[in-house]
Specification:
This protein is mostly beta strands. It has helices at about 5-20, 30-35, 75-85, 105-110, 120-125, 155-160, 165-170, 285-295, and strands at about 100, 130, 175-195, 200-220, 225-235, 250-260, 265-275, 305-315, 320-330, 335-345, 355-365, 370-380, 385-400, 405-420, 420-435, 440-455, 455-470, 475-490. The strands form 2 sheets. Strands 3-4-5-6-7-8-9-10-11-12-13-14-15-16-17-18 form a 16-stranded antiparallel barrel.
Amino acid sequence: MSAATIAIRCLLIIALLTISRQALFAEPWLGSRYAKNCAGCHAPQRINVKPADRRCSLSCQGCHVNPNGGGIRSFYGKWNSNRWLKSFRSDILKHDLNVAAYPKQEYAKKRKSWEKAPDHFVFEKGFSLKETDESVDEDDYYWTYGRYKTIAKNKKHSLFQIPKKDPWRQMAMSKIDGGADFRWFSSLTSIETSTDSSTEKEKQWVSFPMSADFGLRYRPLYRNLHFVMENRYWGSPAKGLPRKTFLTSAKTRSLYTMVDDLPYNIFVMGGYYRPLFGNYDPYHYGLAQRMISHGLQGNSQAYNILFEALSVGTAPNVPYLNLHKIGNRVTNPDDRTEGFALNAGLRGVRYGQSLNYSYWRSKDKALNSSTEMHSIGFMVMLGSGNVMSYEGVSITRDEPDKDFRQGGVHTLDLYLRLWRELYLQSGYAAANVTPELLPGNSSQARAGFKMFLIPGVEMSLFFEAMKIRNDSSALTLSSQGLQSQVHAYF
């Protein structure tokens, strides 16, 4: 074991001990990070509605249009990004101010006069949102005032609490919305490859535009019917490629129709997308993500994968359940895949806790291969903005008469909030096979900083160490190095 790997493991242990002494989220952990802040999604202290009409959820659809997570952010996700997910704001760039606490809102001062308010005002306009340029205490946006205990008597009573700039009203201003997402990745890595008889070392430096996503959503039936199209441009770390190849690499990221905002927050969607499995991480070099990719299609490029799919799900507040019918892989014209997947779980507010289970079973009749995967994970918020996440995944890929592979991986991630939206992130993953699901073992440790600088800009810097032992070839690969990423989105 290299000295760097030992150092990273020690840092992880120290982080664990530090968190354990404290009362301890398109990224799933942000759902736990803002679970206690009701104003993280909308104006503070709304009254509640009857269960069949509730849409409050910490599922992926809390911030993204796609219930499977990732892609275009919904108006609620944009609200969170603009109002909260930032360390600085700029008057020159016209960033939004902080949201004032409930007692300062106009609908709080006039909360007893909703019956006398003009209908056109309540249904069409709403009060102005009170804002502040002063720092705020997130504890003031929790259940402090107990408004959730009040059940709205009718639509007018509910809308009286929703001001002009609230995401609910912003969604009504246009039938078309969209978003974009851009990532630039850089890394300096030292790689050592050894066998029983030789050792080779090399250093690699890459810096390239990793991806750019552009998406549009058209809502002809206001809140219920959605047509979504997302395209992606891919960069490559390969040396010698002209930058213009980035502009010729366009691929469809997703294309689907969805009907949602149904009773009990039910949705139905169909088209081309990747059904949710496990705790998806945008860092596709992660050990678990690489293993899942090999389980799905036999290589490490599942970030490009699309399926013909049909899904139905519900997220009525705390529990959620998604069912998916899986069809052909769009990325392979000869593919004849069919299968089934599900996601089920519970998410709570008080400690940002969640328990999730995912199942995937698919078969490609063209290759005569089958895949079965299980994932179980949990998250919890310990203290002010600190999040711990664990996931265990088991994967089996069988190609009769050719190959059989199976393995499991455990992943633990910790996010320590240091100042505003600056986090110390550390993570460790261990598997009983190689990332390609071959006999052997592998481990990966990461530690570094993640900062949401201004609305729509995230920067990260990590040190990573990985070790892979392939028993069948008696080959050991060790790597360590620095990685940085600039992530811009709106």
